[in-house]
Amino acid sequence: MSDKTMTVNTNGNKKKHVSNLNTEKWKENLQACLKNSNFMLGFCMLASICILAVFSEQIAPYNYMEQGVGPRFTAPCAEFWFGTDELGRDMLSRVIWGTQITLWVAFLGATLQLVIGVTVGLICGYFGGWIDRIFSFLTDLTWCIPSTILALAVVTLIGKGLTNTVISIALVAWASYARPVRAKTMSLKSMAFVETGKAFGESSFALMFRYILPNVIPSLIVMVSTTLPSTILSTTTLSFLGLGSQAPSPDWGLALSNGITYIGTAPWLSIFPGIALLYTVMGFSFLGEGIRDVLDPHMKSQ
Amino acid sequence: MLQGVLLVAAVSILVFALLYMMPGDPINMMVDRKVPEAKRMQMAEELGLYDPFQEQYFRWIGNIVIEQDFGDSVRYKTPVIDLMKDRIARSLTLCGWSLIIEMLIALPMGLICAIKKDSLLDRFTISGSLLLTAMPSFWLGALLVLVFAVWLKVLPISGYDGIEYYVLPVFALVSSTIAGTLRLTRSEVLEVLNEKYVTTAHAKGVPYKKVMLKHVLRNALIMVSVQVFMSIPWLISGAVVTEKIFGIPGMGNLLLNSIVVQDFPVVQAVLLIIAILTVICNLISDIVIALLDPRIRIALSGGDK
Fold first, then answer.
1. Centroid of chain to Cα B159
2. Which of B150, B187, B260 sits opposite A242 (nearest CB)?
3. Residue of A nearest to B139 (CA)
4. Is A302 within 8 Å of chain B by CB?
5. Which of A105, A295, B54, B264 would suit a FRET pair with B30, their CA atoms being 20 to 30 Å apart?
6. Does A23 fall in a domain?
7. Greatest distance between any 2 Cα atoms in chain A
8. Domain of A156: which CATH number?
9. Short-list B273, B300, B293, CA closest to B87
10. Would you say residue A1 has pLDDT above 50?
11. A141 touches chain B (CB under 8 A)
């Protein structure tokens, strides 16, 4: 009985101590982020995109599907800032509605990659042995085919469509999360606090997700923020190749592939979606760079 | 070497399995909807589509290894190898030139940027390369077309029958991959510049140029050459996009079109060839590292000679 009380006490104390330390550390990190110019720049750029995405219905002058709001192929003018396309749809509205798609892609892509990558990384690093070997071999294997091309093959398998493209990219890209998580888990596994947990009879599941995972989170945040731009870019690439979003969707990749057909006569069709995409990707890159500077000072670019 | 062969074998199984699992009946692709069920069954039987997976796989890979026969395209009804012959040449021209030009620009620029770290040129180049990484390669291609073909009218928009048709695609492809190589060269050179043997060389009074070329560049090149060979697969996947923009009928275009119409034999063949190419590039990069770096060479040949 007394034994048990003591355990609870030590556990309680330890937890409180750890969480205190964590909140302080998070506060410190947040302040460092607010002072970091890259972070703030990226944050402002992304905030503007989020506003456009949330309020696209109010901000955009027309619906993205509404045809014939003006003459076809109107060059950018006072009424149609970004011009109109071959069906007389307003490009400005389509670019604004496109923000929703991009943010959805970023969110879904990052979540999927995180879930797959972290689970595999934790399991491989924690258990080692043959599970680890099988997954290492699988990741080696996926490296043999360039990622875009492998994603193309997976899309063929599961079918066209935006969500399917994001899934296929996640299926190809999770290895970039799994590898560092695995390495980190391997080094944390033998640390005293994990051994202690084990001695108290915690299950492997609890050890992996409650003891080891919280210590990986800072590097995970860095990883997510640095891989988001490439996730967005590869999804848009697949849309550009005609395998992602399908016709009436305001997806920027789709808009660009459409715009290239008319590049000689209506260059604005390919210019504006591209600028929007570049702006978003730059926003994510700046944010990622800022977060990396704060959370992972060793990685600071020379 | 053995590892490479194993990887190729594993990849070939992966590629085959990927398309084996594909939904949809290949017979539907080949014949009209009106063809009766019995005839379809007979065709599938003849093609061996009912055989177990391993039998189908070994037949496929056996034909490739022994007779260089990748099967027939479902769509064009011609051997896949004939479809690929001309296209491989075009893709290799595109990728080869891109690689050469990328090296010619990235290596000297990386070296200069590292030596003149934090100078105006360095900052400009680094921001430029950041912009290039953020820029979607297909948009860049579109912009190049717009500026050089539509506005300035100095180069053709699309086509593939002459050197002038390749200028824009090559530059589009180079700009989508150059940023990584440039930044790697720069950071490698920076790392080597901090090494003690460089300081020693300077202290000994070795001429500046000689230090830079023999001590710094040579050591930095080891990592860079790895990156170059690793970037070849990127070039190939970038080529898919570039070929689509500029309408060059190369391997990428073939792959894309075959995926859209679900032409399995062609997709399998193209994926396999790309995978083999990647493994070969990795092997070559190992050999090149060994040639450049005596330490690794000694380790590879089994201890000191």
1. 21
2. B260
3. A274
4. yes
5. B54
6. no
7. 84
8. 1.10.3720.10
9. B273
10. no
11. yes
